[in-house]
Amino acid sequence: MASSLASPTLAIPQPIQGLTVRIPNRSRSSSLVKVEHVGDESQEDALDSAAYENVNVEWVNRKGAWLIHPALIFAGKMVVDTIPGMRQDISWFLVNLIYLSLTYLMFHWVTGIPFQSDLHGGVYDELTLWEQIDQGAQYTPAKKWLVVVPILLFLASTHYSEYNPWMFAINLTALIFVLIPKLPQLHRRRVRFMVEDEYPSQGNTPSAPATPRSGSSTPTSSETQFNIPQIRTPDANQFSTEQ
C-alpha cells in the first residue's frame, strides 16, 4: 500500500463580481436659446420693496409724465430736420429708430436702480425699469401708454416713408424687439443665447459595463487552487507489529 496519498488539488473559480455602476464624466454642453427666471418673488422681497417708495419709477405716474414722450419725439424730429438735404421719409425713419433704441435701452436693458438701492435690500438689482413700474403689475395705464406710443410712431414713420418696403421691414423689426419684452409672459425672464450647461441631463444617467463574453474571463486551475491537506494512512507492517 502506498505510504501516503497524493495531495489532490481542486480548482475553485473566482467569485462572480457584481456589476459596477460607472458614471461618465459630466461635460459641458451649450444651448442655443435659454430662458432664465430672475429675481425672487418671496414675501420677504415684497416687504423690502414696499418699505420705501421706488424713486426710480415713481415719476412714470406723475402728471405730465405721459407728455414727455411726444415732446421728445417732436424735439428729435426738429433736430434731425436741421441736417442739410434731409428728406421727410428719412427723417421719420431715423426718429423712429432712435426713439425705439433709446426706450429699449432705458426700459428693457438697464437693470437695478441708480440710487438708494440699499433701502430695498437689493430687490431691484436684477429687474429692468419696465419690471419695476407699478411693482410689476400688468396692464396698468402707464404701461398701456408706453405700448401705444411706439406703435403710433411706427405708423407715422410708415406713412411718411410712403410704405417703402425696406424701411417698413426695418421699422417693423425694431418695433417687435421693443414690444416683445413688454409681454406679461416675459416678466422677470431673460432670453439668453449660446449658454453653456455645466451638467446636461443626458450625462447624469449611470451605466453598467458590458457583460463579458462567456468563457472569456473563466479562471483556470493555475490561477486559483484550493489545497487539501494530506491524509496519512498507517503502514500495514507497523499495524501488525503493534498487535
UniProtKB/TrEMBL annotation:
Region of interest (Disordered), ranges: 198-243
Segments traversing the membrane: 92-110, 163-180
Biased composition (Low complexity): 205-222
Location of the protein in the cell: Membrane
Topological type in the membrane: Multi-pass membrane protein
Keywords from the named record: Membrane, Transmembrane, Transmembrane helix
Lineage top rank: taxon: Eukaryota
Protein's name in the database: Orm1 type endoplasmic reticulum protein
Origin species: Daedalea quercina L-15889
